[in-house]
Amino acid sequence: MALATFVDRVKGLEATGVVDYAHLWDQLTSWWPPEMWNPQVTPLANALPDIDSFPDQFALGAVGAYATPDLGMCISSDAIRRGPAELMQTMLTISNLAGRRAPILQLGAGELKQCKPFGWKRSQGLSSLEDHFRYMEAFWNSDGPVTLKGNRWNFDNAWIGGSKGRRPRVWGLGGGPKIIDLTTTYADGFATIAPSVWTSADHAGEEISKLKQTLDSKGRDPEAFDFGLWPLLILHDEGREDLVEAAMSNPLIRWLAAVFGRINQSDWDKEGIEPLMPRDWHYAMKLLPVQWSAAEVEEVTAGIPRKTIEKCFFIGTPEKVAAELQAYVDAGVTWTMMADVLPFVMNAEEASDASRRAVEVCAILKGRDPASATLTIDGVGRTQPYANDRSAPGAIR
């Protein structure tokens, strides 16, 4: 996507009336080995020859916040590559530029591919996340400088001013007992992936119930807490099952199934399926895309059964997928981000239309006629729409 079209794109999402936030991924590199991104694998490579050149998502978030007063900005990042005070300063800037929706920062413990090649230590992820959460709480609960002994950062009369403005919402992102503990202690919400982590609506309901019990035990209001979902989608129009057939055999999609199909590879054992990667392999702690050879990629992607790939995504028309996601909403999910992976293996013209289907899912989840949520933007981009508005009629709740 040409950056000059970013504002037009987010304005198009805002105008649909059913998309509440644009989600921006703070990435330094993509999830695929670079040599996989070529015209022989995906026609989109003809229009987007480099899948690893990500712009600064915080800069885009500031532009988008100012340009679209009715569309919120959500940025997912890690706790390692920016200090707590610097990140708070950035989020306050975006918040003060924004319209009626406070920005959301989803913060995880980091990925090896974002850290090791650039001199950061992925092993500092959880301790850094705790420092971020503790600093943010101290900053908002203090009228003066912050003094705080942390794991990685120590604050000694740290002062970034008293003009705080509107508080951004900060969520924990990922999974695991430590992240859950930190998130339920300090954060405003929690987000994870489906079906990669929450494999079914019933599973999501069980985990949300546990989270609510933990929040309650810590004296926090579960109803003021958000439960977010990143569903991995393969959306297509009625009568275009041929697109699904092509996707099932495409190495890019098969790679995503291997890497993200189950975040904890050993979870495949619960379904009687041989894990697609070693049982102790976790993408956040193991994946370094640039180090994978073509032969290694072929070995991983070639033999995955179709039925296994189908368990890694929500596949179907907007109406079918919305019904499946509605079950998650009924189980307690308050926020859904439409992460459609099909555009990555389509030509530019088809890919540019993919956001329309994601918007239709948002419309259906909000109880709106999807035909009324017209998306009038062109081009291919990395911005994804999602629905969440507790105050609006037909909101996800």
UniProtKB/TrEMBL annotation:
<keyword id="KW-0560">Oxidoreductase</keyword>
<dbReference type="Pfam" id="PF00296">
    <property type="entry name" value="Bac_luciferase"/>
</dbReference>
<dbReference type="InterPro" id="IPR011251">
    <property type="entry name" value="Luciferase-like_dom"/>
</dbReference>
<feature type="domain" description="Luciferase-like">
    <location>
        <begin position="29"/>
        <end position="334"/>
    </location>
</feature>
<protein>
    <recommendedName>
        <fullName>Luciferase-like domain-containing protein</fullName>
    </recommendedName>
</protein>
<dbReference type="InterPro" id="IPR036661">
    <property type="entry name" value="Luciferase-like_sf"/>
</dbReference>
<dbReference type="InterPro" id="IPR050564">
    <property type="entry name" value="F420-G6PD/mer"/>
</dbReference>
<dbReference type="GO" id="GO:0016705">
    <property type="term" value="F:oxidoreductase activity, acting on paired donors, with incorporation or reduction of molecular oxygen"/>
</dbReference>
